[in-house]
Structures are given as C-alpha cells and as structure tokens.
Specification:
alpha/beta
C-alpha cells in the first residue's frame, strides 16, 4: 500500500521486502530500552538527535525501512524521508507488535475477518482491521467511539492492538468513554486496553469522564481499578476535573480509599 509517497508494508510483505533489499537502511523509532530488548538485525535507533544527520548524509537512492511500536510514528518519519528526496521509503503497518506476532506465529489461529467486518472497515475508510486511519485512530478506536459493540467484538477477535494510541495519545478506552456506554468500557478493560493510560497531556480516561460529567463511566472505571490519584502534566487529578456533583462524590470516596 502506498501512502503520501511511501509504502506501507504488512509484516508478511516486509519480510519479503527486506530479503529483496539487503542494503536497506533499517530504522527503529522506538525507545532505546525497547530497542535493546529486541529489534530487526542491523536496525539503527531513530530519534530526534540523529534523524537530521541521516537525512543529510545517507544516499537518497538507498532504500529506507522504518518501524515503531504500532505503525503510527513510523509514518511521520517516512513522510520526512520522502520530503527530503529519498526514492524508496517503507514503513511497517502495525509496527514491532505486528512483526513480533508474526514471528511468534500467534496469528495462525485467527480466522479471516467476516464479510460484515470487511464491509464496515471499507465503508469507514480503513485498509484492514489493524491499520490506523484519520488522526491515527485505529478501527477499534473508531468502533468504540461510535459505540458499536458488535464491531468491537469482531475486532477483538482479530487480535488487534490493545495498546495503540492516536495522534492525541488517546487509546480505545478513551474513545469508548466518549460513546458513554458503560458495558463497552468494561469490555475493553477486561480485554486488556490499558486502564490508566495517559495521553500527551497526561490525562486519563477517568479524567475525561469526570470532566465530561459522565458519572456512570466514572463508576465503571473506578470499579475496574482506575487510579483517581494520577496527575496530569499540570498536576491535576480526576477529582480536580469533576464537572458534576455525582462525579465529585464518586471520586472523593475513591481518592480517600486509595490514599488510605
């Protein structure tokens, strides 16, 4: 798949592409600790300190392959290399997680998506169940935002990433809170979507629910173990953000229990 001048490769496609391009520049856009734990052989860590040197010194004819955690940041870097005139730039859809799943053979028992799911993905503009679309929202995030429980279940059956975040740093649980469906919020937490994940400003789903006056969502999040004492970058907690008396009461009680 081509996007904005670069190719997006699935893990299976990337395996063949890498075999055909042994001289490619392999770039790992994850943090140093994760790179140390495991990476593609020959890959170089890519960060804000070395990307300019590579853009200026590497031959524009050298193929470039970029991967990150889930295939979001890699697109930004791929765009950058294309803008600087590199002729052949690819990134990995689904990121290191997709590569690891393929390497472990964990997808062999996953049935292909049914016709209903494929039709929904196509209608919503998604390439497949795993690739993010507009604003970095994955199909799971989009379905959660729309409150489509049946689609969410179908996507979970495809073992989509539960740790993916969009361009604002929000995960699928945040989007489910927006839809204001307690059962859906509970289901995603049970499935493994991180409960206390913080977005780019340090806000959690609990903070969003409190600030949006969604007491039923606040109650479910607290029942499932959400931490009311987590702070944003500006040192605000969900209690500080409570926009209604029911939310305030729930969070006061939970904060007292947690502090004790």
């Amino acid at each position: 798949m081509a996007s904005a001048g670069f190719r997006r490769l699935t893990a299976a496609e990337a395996e063949s592409w890498l075999a055909d391009h042994p001289d490619a520049l392999l770039l790992d856009a994850r943090q140093l600790a994760h790179h140390a734990q495991g990476h593609l052989p020959g890959s170089v860590r890519l960060d804000g300190r070395n990307h300019e040197r590579m853009l200026m010194t590497e031959a524009k004819t050298r193929p470039v392959f970029i991967y990150c955690y889930h295939g979001n940041a890699s697109q930004t870097y791929a765009d950058m290399f294309v803008d600087f005139g590199f002729h052949s730039v690819c990134d990995l859809m689904g990121g290191w997680e997709a590569w690891s799943q393929r390497a472990a053979g964990s997808s062999c028992d996953i049935a292909p998506p049914d016709e209903a799911l494929v039709a929904w993905l196509t209608a919503q503009g998604f390439v497949d169940a795993h690739t993010a679309g507009t604003h970095g929202n994955t199909p799971l995030m989009h379905a959660a935002w729309l409150g489509l429980t049946d689609v969410v279940e179908a996507l979970l059956a495809q073992r989509v990433s539960l740790k993916a975040v969009n361009n604002d740093g929000n995960n699928a649980l945040w989007l489910a809170c927006v839809s204001n469906q307690p059962a859906l919020v509970r289901r995603l937490i049970e499935a493994g979507v991180p409960l206390d994940h913080q977005n780019l400003t340090g806000a959690t789903s609990l903070m969003y629910a409190a600030s949006s006056s969604k007491p039923e969502i606040v109650q479910v999040l607290l029942e499932m173990g959400a931490d009311p004492l987590v702070q944003t970058q500006d040192d605000f907690t969900a209690l500080d953000m409570a926009a209604s008396l029911p939310c305030l009461q729930l969070l006061r009680a939970a904060s007292r229990r947690r502090a004790a």
